[in-house]
Specification:
Blueprint (H helix, E strand, L loop, with lengths): L1 H18 L2 H17 L3 H4 L1 H7 L7 H4 L10 H12 L2 H14 L2 H26 L2 E2 L5 E2 L2 H6 L6 E3 L4 E3 L1 H38 L3 H4 L2 E3 L2 E2 H18 L3 H29 L4 H13 L9 H20 L7 H4 L7 H29 L24 H7 L7 H33 L4 H17 L2 H41 L13 H14 L1
Antiparallel strand pairs: 1-2, 3-4, 5-6
Amino acid sequence: MDKILQTIESVNGEINSVVWGAFGLLLLVGTGIIVTVLTKFFQVSHIGMWFKQTLGSLFNKDVIKHSKEKGSISPFQALCTALAATVGTGNIAGVAAAICIGGAGAVFWMWVAAFFGMMTNYAENVLGIYFRRKNEKGEWSGGAMYYLANGLGSYEYKDKNASVSFKKLGKVLAVLFCIFTMLASFGIGSMGQVNKIVTNVAQAFDVSALSSIEVFTGVSLYNIILGAIIMLLTALITLGGLKRIANVAEKIVPIMVVLFVAGSLVVIGVNYVNILPAFKAIFVNAFKPEAFVGGGIGAVISKVVTQGFKRGVFSNEAGLGSSVMVHSNSNIKEPVKQGMWGIFEVFADTMVVCTMTALVILTAGGLNGGVFNAVTGEIAAGYTDATLVGGAFNSVFGWGDIGEKFIAIAMFLFAFTTVLGWSHYGSKAWEYLFGAKTTFIFRIIHVCTVIFGAVLTSSLAWDISDTFNGLMMIPNLIGVLVLAPLVVKITANYLKRVKKNEDIEPMYNADPEIQAQEKVREIVED
């Protein structure tokens, strides 16, 4: 077993260094910047509108009521399911890992990635709704594979001497995206999440009779039992399909986010004198990293930026083309409206939850000697990046290690709902390749991979997730870049109709038949 894990680690390391090299990072941030510029900084210039259409609409029955349409869910359920998949270990252990490896400055680069990622996610969701189709079960199916095959694939370059069709390229990229999505669902959507659940639960709720029995190097019987329990719970929910996943997500996600943010505010409030120094450390170390990161100044800054971007993507998934697969199941007909939920998703995930985590770590006990020393890079004795936030909570909620236990429970809920969301993503990729009637096969395979998260080392599970994310990101972002002018056109069409009351043809879907059906639905609903 040890030799197998070493081989996996070696191969994964080679692939990881390529997909998360200069090309991958430039493609990720560059796409967000280009879409932001082309839409005239939509996330800022229309901040009032997208807040009103998202957070401000939560008491609107059209947003929160359950859809009776087969395979369709409400916009709120779509958001909760997407947040279930994004608000996971990346928001707790991921932020801690970024700070431990790249210093406080990594948080700044997470913010940068999120700011531009808002528009990447917006573009993905707009394209997802615009190119979605009904499968053989009569359910909505959308995602990068559809806008790659039907959007990018419809392009044709012509000049006087020849013409080049993008049809084959679009189909190849769509197939690659689906393959990488299924692999990512085993990494970020299974093994990486379960690994952090087991690590935190085993430390916070130790059962020595089980944890003392080592099955093989570094893996106890307790780890395996926890993995088996999580696998059973995953099966009970995911094998019931999207509706069951969405019903669970809408009940758990709002509560877990509110409780985590509330607990974080208490920890930060108790350590309020360290808030300004923490922000100073974040901004200063973003461009002048502390020496503990290691290497020359160029290598140091590169490591800090890379950690910020990688953990940002791991956290909010903007650029992966993942959450669009559940947003496309929304019963909403306007691509731009669902796109605005994508902006809010990234905002809530990174700007709110991840920032809370970072401030908890940096303020708890002070920057120079709490659970994490921002100057020396040292973690307090007895903690790892996976349990660092629990230690920070314990510094305030120390009675019977309540803080650590709270984070273990939060980590379980965050990570477990991520596993549920990614089961849906992987099943939609499988559906594109093999048909909707066989998706139960994928769900069973996905459930079986859960146990591997309990036995892999923390660093390997994390690295595998990073690699699959990067592989998935590349074809998706190529599609978003090429189709960015179409996103601008759809956005302009919506703004003219909604803000300027112009009587023009709406842009609901690229397929003429679906476009006509959506126009009829508009008349009926009005």
